[in-house]
Amino acid sequence: MLPSYLTDTDLSSIKLVATDMDLTLLADDKSMPEGVDERIDALTERGVVFCAASGRPGLALRESFPDHHADMAIVADNGASVYLRDELIYRDLIDRDLYHEVLSLATGTPGGVPVLCAFDDAYVLERDRDHEDVLSIYYRSITYVDSFDDLDVDSNKISIYFPGWDSKKNLDEVYAPAFGTRLYLTCAGNEWLDFMNIGIDKGSGIRHLVEHLGIDLADVAAFGDTYNDIPMLDIVGHSYVMANAAEHMHAHGTFLAPSNNDAGVLTVIDRIVEAAK
């Protein structure tokens, strides 16, 4: 068992607070915990940058923080695009032939809903429109197409939604054998599988951000709960695994934060704010 967040007493040097969204900052029902805006204001007043680090695209993340996206950082698409105060400071592109190869396999493999991510836009097959209630939580601008074959757009990520909540099984049995040497694959919870270029993940996104800010990774606090958070948790000075995370995640954290349903991220932020006074 990880030591409690209360044992992390060296908080005064923290300059960046990065948090995953689903099952970390957000409650199980996807709701934002009450008081987030006040915490972001308090961090900003003390020179600490707040960052949402997620597999979600930038547009959805900006809409999640309507009053603060211009004052914060965003590591979107699992590190494939990075924003600071609404300025795009880094982006990565997947080779077109390669993303078509992934989409072709995903289209022909039962059980998955492939999504081609193109920064603020997403492309989904018309056959999968029935899943719009879930897809629209993450993608605000969806274009439905009869086929992916003719698409020629800049894409930084491919995602597959698994309504059967078996993303890890599909990763291990189908997609890692086909693409594991050419792309970085990671499960974003039980229902999503994400594909980025090798070397692109939340950790690389945080590295781009700290380099731009001129701060050290040792002075970053990060919060996460699942596989795609591991590259971020593994490199920062203050890594918090949520109490609701699976136990295998404890190997990638330094401290255990209260659960997402108990607003654990805000609880730790309050301690960071107090230490920064």
Automatic annotation (TrEMBL):
<dbReference type="GO" id="GO:0005829">
    <property type="term" value="C:cytosol"/>
</dbReference>
<protein>
    <submittedName>
        <fullName>HAD family phosphatase</fullName>
    </submittedName>
</protein>
<dbReference type="GO" id="GO:0000287">
    <property type="term" value="F:magnesium ion binding"/>
</dbReference>
<dbReference type="GO" id="GO:0016791">
    <property type="term" value="F:phosphatase activity"/>
</dbReference>
<dbReference type="InterPro" id="IPR036412">
    <property type="entry name" value="HAD-like_sf"/>
</dbReference>
<dbReference type="Pfam" id="PF08282">
    <property type="entry name" value="Hydrolase_3"/>
</dbReference>
<dbReference type="InterPro" id="IPR006379">
    <property type="entry name" value="HAD-SF_hydro_IIB"/>
</dbReference>
<dbReference type="InterPro" id="IPR023214">
    <property type="entry name" value="HAD_sf"/>
</dbReference>
<dbReference type="InterPro" id="IPR000150">
    <property type="entry name" value="Cof"/>
</dbReference>
